[in-house]
Amino acid sequence: MNEGFKFLDFAPEARPVGDEAIAEDAHQLAALCRAHGVNHLVYIGFAINWCLLMSPGGMIDMGRHGVMCSTIREAVTAVENRETAREEREKQQALWRVAINSGFVFRAG
Protein backbone atom coordinates (compact mmCIF):
# COMPACT_ATOMS: atom_id res chain seq x y z
CA MET A 1 0.00 0.00 0.00
CA ASN A 2 2.72 2.54 0.90
CA GLU A 3 4.79 1.58 -2.12
CA GLY A 4 3.16 4.20 -4.35
CA PHE A 5 3.82 7.04 -1.90
CA LYS A 6 7.53 7.06 -2.73
CA PHE A 7 6.57 8.50 -6.13
CA LEU A 8 4.52 11.41 -4.73
CA ASP A 9 6.00 14.83 -5.26
CA PHE A 10 4.99 18.44 -5.75
CA ALA A 11 3.79 19.52 -9.18
CA PRO A 12 6.65 21.48 -10.77
CA GLU A 13 4.65 24.72 -10.52
CA ALA A 14 4.06 24.19 -6.79
CA ARG A 15 7.56 23.18 -5.70
CA PRO A 16 8.96 25.13 -2.77
CA VAL A 17 11.51 27.69 -3.89
CA GLY A 18 14.93 27.72 -2.23
CA ASP A 19 14.53 27.22 1.51
CA GLU A 20 10.80 28.00 1.45
CA ALA A 21 9.08 26.13 4.28
CA ILE A 22 6.35 23.55 3.83
CA ALA A 23 3.86 22.22 6.39
CA GLU A 24 2.58 18.68 6.72
CA ASP A 25 -0.15 19.28 9.27
CA ALA A 26 -2.06 21.97 11.14
CA HIS A 27 0.51 22.35 13.91
CA GLN A 28 3.32 22.99 11.43
CA LEU A 29 1.18 25.36 9.36
CA ALA A 30 0.11 27.26 12.49
CA ALA A 31 3.74 27.57 13.55
CA LEU A 32 4.68 28.95 10.13
CA CYS A 33 1.80 31.42 10.29
CA ARG A 34 2.92 32.65 13.72
CA ALA A 35 6.55 32.90 12.62
CA HIS A 36 5.63 35.01 9.59
CA GLY A 37 2.81 37.05 11.13
CA VAL A 38 0.12 35.46 8.92
CA ASN A 39 -3.40 35.62 10.35
CA HIS A 40 -5.47 35.01 7.20
CA LEU A 41 -5.19 32.13 4.71
CA VAL A 42 -7.06 31.86 1.39
CA TYR A 43 -7.80 28.28 0.30
CA ILE A 44 -8.38 27.29 -3.33
CA GLY A 45 -8.60 23.94 -5.07
CA PHE A 46 -10.68 20.81 -5.07
CA ALA A 47 -13.27 19.73 -2.52
CA ILE A 48 -14.18 22.81 -0.52
CA ASN A 49 -16.69 20.60 1.30
CA TRP A 50 -14.14 17.94 2.25
CA CYS A 51 -10.39 18.46 1.81
CA LEU A 52 -10.15 22.22 2.15
CA LEU A 53 -12.40 22.27 5.19
CA MET A 54 -11.47 19.08 7.01
CA SER A 55 -7.99 17.87 6.00
CA PRO A 56 -5.02 18.39 8.34
CA GLY A 57 -4.20 22.07 7.96
CA GLY A 58 -7.64 22.75 6.50
CA MET A 59 -9.97 25.55 7.47
CA ILE A 60 -11.41 23.84 10.54
CA ASP A 61 -7.97 23.05 11.96
CA MET A 62 -6.57 26.48 11.22
CA GLY A 63 -9.61 28.21 12.68
CA ARG A 64 -8.85 26.39 15.93
CA HIS A 65 -5.39 27.98 15.77
CA GLY A 66 -6.93 31.45 15.45
CA VAL A 67 -6.28 31.91 11.72
CA MET A 68 -9.02 33.38 9.53
CA CYS A 69 -9.68 31.14 6.52
CA SER A 70 -11.32 32.37 3.33
CA THR A 71 -11.77 31.13 -0.21
CA ILE A 72 -12.43 32.33 -3.76
CA ARG A 73 -15.78 31.15 -5.17
CA GLU A 74 -14.52 30.54 -8.72
CA ALA A 75 -11.32 28.81 -7.56
CA VAL A 76 -12.90 25.87 -5.73
CA THR A 77 -15.08 22.92 -6.56
CA ALA A 78 -16.82 20.38 -4.36
CA VAL A 79 -17.58 16.71 -4.09
CA GLU A 80 -21.06 16.47 -5.57
CA ASN A 81 -23.46 13.63 -6.31
CA ARG A 82 -26.05 12.94 -8.98
CA GLU A 83 -28.68 15.00 -7.21
CA THR A 84 -26.48 18.02 -6.46
CA ALA A 85 -24.01 18.28 -9.34
CA ARG A 86 -26.05 20.24 -11.87
CA GLU A 87 -26.69 23.12 -9.44
CA GLU A 88 -23.45 22.67 -7.44
CA ARG A 89 -25.51 22.53 -4.26
CA GLU A 90 -22.73 20.99 -2.15
CA LYS A 91 -20.35 23.75 -3.26
CA GLN A 92 -22.91 26.43 -2.38
CA GLN A 93 -23.49 24.86 1.04
CA ALA A 94 -19.75 24.70 1.75
CA LEU A 95 -19.25 28.31 0.66
CA TRP A 96 -22.06 29.31 3.04
CA ARG A 97 -20.31 27.36 5.79
CA VAL A 98 -17.03 29.19 5.13
CA ALA A 99 -18.80 32.55 5.17
CA ILE A 100 -20.48 31.97 8.52
CA ASN A 101 -17.74 30.06 10.31
CA SER A 102 -14.31 30.71 8.83
CA GLY A 103 -13.81 33.93 6.92
CA PHE A 104 -14.82 35.43 3.61
CA VAL A 105 -15.90 34.10 0.23
CA PHE A 106 -14.26 36.31 -2.38
CA ARG A 107 -15.11 36.56 -6.07
CA ALA A 108 -12.36 36.36 -8.68
CA GLY A 109 -11.68 39.55 -10.55
Mean of residue pLDDT values: 94
Order of helices and strands: HEHHEHE
Helical region count? Answer: 4
The number of distinct β-strands equals: 3
Question: Spatial order of the strands in the main sheet?
Answer: 1-2-3
The residue fraction in helices comes out at 25-40%
Note the overall shape. globular
Low-confidence stretches: none
Task: Estimate what percentage of residues fall within beta strands.
Answer: 15-25%
Distance between the termini: 43 Å
By secondary-structure content and strand pairing, the structural class works out as: alpha/beta
C-alpha Rg, in Å?
Answer: 15 Å
* Major β-sheet profile: 3 strands, parallel
Question: Which helices and strands occur, and which strands form pairs?
Answer:
Blueprint: H1 26-36, E1 40-45, H2 51-54, H3 59-64, E2 68-76, H4 89-101, E3 105-106
Parallel strand pairs: 1-2, 2-3
